[in-house]
Design brief:
This protein is mostly beta strands. It is 7% helix and 64% strand. It is elongated and about 105 Å long.
């Protein structure tokens, strides 16, 4: 019923606006011609201005013609703009005696400097602070910092990637959503970032306090990764390839192609990653009567292919339909080991080996339609996105134990499949030059199936155990939203609200049998919930002058438990620790406040901000004894008391001299961490909390040596982090690199040394519930060398190509 009411109101608004536009009866027509080729140019922007303000406009058709109707009888300035061409303006006067003005042929000419047919990647990354987000425009300096999106994320202000789990965090919190081109993905964020080549990334948007237009999941906000997509005429593209040398070489390549002819634009991206990654670490445990040292490590060989194919069809100047598909194929596998040596000779030392194969295949299909109304800026967008992910995993464990000697073989066979459907309808209406209305509806339907088979065999004991766990989970979310924005001379404001109906249904079944009949378990449980929530958002911006701007915003957010947090099927296991979810977990709600200040100077911009979060039913870690194994702990999740966190950050994008530019940022977070830990003396579970202060800093320098040669120096510091169980020690690193331009500016060679002094590692020291120390090491010190080349013609050759293609394809029935 709510959706029907929304559609009815949307259609009424569209009809009212269309009736308003029909009040004028003046018409301006003409045709835009290229000065040199004398050929018509399609898709030229035509703007009608009154008192230097745009009141309406359009674009030229395939034959270069344009017609703008519904104009009141007044005097106007008509402006013609097209990328790579000089701007042209014409004065027009409409009156009762001259209601239709034909400008005939409007001649425009190219700029003296031709633009390349592909999108130029800047040498230096830049940062823009907008009213509701921070935009990082990725330059060659960031691309050179590593193969993948995961590698460059640690160089982005307020973003961190955990070196061990690859978990992404924003402003010190891992409850963050990752979007690709504004769309969600079924792939785990940490895994996804390792599969996207860094050279395929155009921008990274940090939306720390999203408006009501976005779904409210993720306490820290949203990270939106925008990939390159070209829409220039003709055929053009780019190729990027690089090798990272660590303990073993790792290959990273990306190919971007674009072909636009007539009303159709085709584009494709292909990314390839292949390499063996090694890691190792140790833990010293001083648990009373169980003192031990654990050594662990292993290597993983992964090969990934990420393909994006898409097209845009420009039906006419007001209607566009688009389609794309992402195909992500990952083949992975590796081996690992965990060795436990006890201090006491009475205890049994052990060693566990693992051999795993894990694949992932995700296919995504996206269909979008956009309609531009006669009024400039008034649009209606429809989008449907479906994805399916299959991620089977098979792992064989061999467990050896001494004193006395015993051997156990375990096989875990996991089948995971996720279906996800998202449908959006969005309407934008700039009611006046200073007032804008947004309306929208969204439906998300998700189904997850997780089937876990485990076989345990102990040959010496003649013991076999077979278990099967099956978890089926569905989540449906239906939303309506509205945003209303108003702009004054120096002030601008936006208020919005989002209404959501959240429904979940889960079914868990566990069957275990053993050869000696000591176990015969058949458990079944279900979870079900139905929640209606309201999520308001408020944004204010005050532009004191051209140099000083203030932003204030507020939004209500939610962190809904992920499948890994609620699934009772175990996620991973070692002889001493096992991880599994909690089906009874409830959503966590957050009220988030934020204030930002931007100062523009002659050498760049500086942005400072503070934020505060009030958190209800906080989701945290809990540790308890495994009821089936007294020597093993279970790590899971639970809802705790209300909490709060606040922090501050500052970033700068400065051009110190013609030859020197700096991107720098620092941030500090203050929070209270709560959870449940085991009392080592009593064995009971107790609530615990600790106050935490985290400080991080980054600085990226770019030096221009010559017109073709540039150097880069990057340094970062991640301060200590205090948790309930341990203190994470500080981490820091320094990278150096250079870029040399070749092939008349269309190509470049980049070289970079990461972690020059090999100081980047994860180490900790803990005392709850008992003393533990340890460290984790990975291939942090690497050398990267890469090549980038852009190809494609200019505008004139594109027009000639288009004519040739039209002649060639008249009888072939195809465009390519």
């Amino acid at each position: 019923m709510k959706l029907k009411l929304f559609v009815f109101l949307t259609l009424c608004t569209i009809g009212f606006t269309t009736a308003q536009n029909a009040s004028g009866n003046g018409v301006i027509t003409g045709k835009v011609i290229d000065k040199n080729s004398q050929q018509p140019i399609p898709y030229v922007n035509v703007s009608v201005l009154e008192d230097n303000k745009i009141i309406t406009g359009g674009i030229t058709q395939e034959n270069g013609n344009f017609t703008i109707k519904g104009l009141p009888l007044k005097k106007y300035l008509v402006e013609f703009q097209f990328i790579g061409y000089k701007k042209v303006t014409k004065e027009v006067t409409l009156s009762e005696n001259n209601k239709t003005v034909n400008l005939n042929n409007v001649i425009i000419e190219e700029e003296a400097v031709q633009l390349a047919g592909v999108e130029i990647v800047k040498e230096r990354s830049t940062i823009e602070q907008k009213i509701d987000r921070k935009v990082v425009n990725v330059g060659k300096d960031l691309i050179a910092s590593g193969n993948t999106a995961s590698d460059i994320m640690n160089n982005i202000p307020t973003v961190s990637v955990d070196p061990q789990t690859k978990e992404l965090s924003l402003r010190g919190n891992s409850n963050v959503r990752v979007l690709i081109d504004g769309k969600p993905s079924n792939i785990d964020a940490g895994q996804l970032l390792q599969q996207i080549p860094s050279s395929s990334i155009k921008q990274i948007e940090l939306i720390t306090n999203p408006s009501a237009k976005y779904n409210p999941e993720g306490m820290s906000g949203i990270i939106n990764i925008i990939l390159h997509k070209n829409s220039q005429d003709g055929f053009n593209g780019s190729i990027n390839s690089g090798v990272t040398f660590g303990e073993t070489p790792k290959v990273n390549s990306a190919l971007n192609l674009n072909y636009r002819v007539g009303k159709v634009n085709f584009y494709s991206n292909y990314g390839f990653n292949h390499g063996l990654n090694a890691n190792r670490g140790h833990i010293n445990s001083f648990r009373p009567n169980l003192e031990n040292r654990q050594e662990f490590g292993g290597s993983n060989l992964n090969t990934s292919h990420l393909v994006k194919l898409g097209m845009d069809y420009y039906i006419d100047e007001k209607n566009t339909i688009s389609f794309y598909t992402n195909q992500n194929i990952v083949a992975g596998g590796g081996d690992g080991y965990t060795t436990i040596n006890y201090d006491s000779a009475l205890l049994r030392d052990s060693k566990q080996f693992s051999y795993s194969d894990n694949d992932n295949y995700t296919q995504t299909y996206d269909l979008a339609y956009k309609h531009d109304f006669a009024k400039k800026g008034e649009t209606l967008d429809f989008q449907a996105n479906f994805s399916n992910t299959e991620s089977p995993e098979k792992t064989d464990f061999k467990f050896n134990q001494t004193n006395p000697t015993s051997t156990r073989f375990t096989t875990n066979d996991i089948e995971r499949e996720t279906d996800y459907l998202q449908i959006n309808l969005d309407y934008v209406n700039p009611i006046t030059e200073s007032i804008k209305l947004e309306l929208g509806a969204e439906t998300r339907i998700q189904k997850i199936t997780n089937d876990f088979d485990e076989t345990i065999s102990e040959p010496l004991e003649s013991y076999n155990r077979v278990g099967n766990s099956n978890f089926v989970f569905t989540r449906n979310i239906h939303s309506l939203y509205t945003n209303f924005g108003k702009q004054w001379t120096k002030w601008s404001a936006q208020v919005g609200v989002r209404l959501e109906q959240y429904e979940i249904d889960g079914d868990f079944q566990n069957v275990v049998t053993s050869s000696n009949s000591t176990e015969n378990i058949n458990d079944r449980s279900a979870i079900k919930d139905d929640i209606f929530s309201v999520y308001p958002s408020v944004f204010f911006s005050y532009k004191m002058n051209d140099k000083n701007t203030f932003n204030f915003n507020y939004s209500r957010r939610v962190d809904r438990p992920s499948i890994g947090q609620i699934s009772p099927i175990r996620e991973w296991t070692t002889p001493l620790v096992e991880s599994r979810g909690n089906p009874a977990l409830e959503p966590q709600f957050t009220n988030s406040f934020e204030v930002n200040y931007t100062r523009t100077t002659t050498i760049g911009a500086i942005t400072a901000g503070i934020f505060y979060r009030q958190i209800n039913d906080e989701i945290g870690r809990v540790i308890y004894k495994n009821p089936d194994n007294n020597n093993q702990d279970i790590i899971s999740y639970n809802n705790f008391d209300n909490n709060h966190a606040f922090g501050t950050e500052i970033s700068a994008n400065l051009k110190v001299a013609k030859w020197w530019s700096i991107n720098a940022s620092s941030d500090a977070y203050f929070k209270t961490v709560r959870g449940t830990v085991e009392n080592a003396n009593t064995g009971n579970q107790e609530r615990a909390e600790v106050d935490v202060v985290i400080f991080n800093a980054r600085m990226n320098h770019n030096f221009v040596a010559t017109k073709k040669l540039r150097f880069n120096l990057f340094a970062m510091y991640r301060g200590k982090d205090l948790g309930l169980q341990f203190e994470r020690k500080p981490m820091y690193r320094m990278d150096v690199g250079s870029t040399y331009t070749i092939l008349k500016g269309k190509g470049s060679i980049t070289a970079r040394m990461n972690d020059v002094f090999e100081t980047m590692n994860f180490s900790f020291d803990g005392s709850i519930p008992y003393r533990q120390t340890g460290a984790f090491y990975w291939e942090s010190q690497t050398f990267y060398i890469g090549f980038n080349y852009m190809f494609g013609g200019g505008k004139n050759s594109a027009l000639q190509r288009k004519q040739r293609d039209q002649n060639e394809t008249q009888g072939s029935g195809g465009l390519l």
